[in-house]
Amino acid sequence: MHASVEETVQARLILSTHRSARLRVTLAYRPEDPLAVRMGFPAEFSLDEPADGPVPVPGRDAGPDIEWVFARQLLTAGLELAAGVGDVHVRPAAGRRTMVELRAPEGTALVRFDTTDLRRFLWRSRLAVPEGEEHLYLDADRALAELLG
Question: Looking at residue 96, what is its pLDDT?
């Protein structure tokens, strides 16, 4: 079995046109879930805080991370062209940056990443499970057991 890929990167939570906050984001890829990537945000990152409200405080111990799980292919496509339907949208931005928009009932968060960080993470994920070979890593019995509890 290939090893999981995990990387912590710095991103910016866009609060308004002229205001943003630095944010630590953990990117993760697991070969046992080969179609998905995970983005872990500090627990103090909250979609229900108003834009002019509290700013996340890196390093504050606020409990477990908030994790968003979405298709690896969506992240790959969004590096080149706007992509996404539903809760997660990814699009290129000026200056070798990538914007990830996360939508939840509590609100919407816009997070800006350095595209180089995302490309490096995706490259490492493809070393673990090459693109187009994800089906070889799927465990239908395990997935069914998880669904049925």
Answer: 96
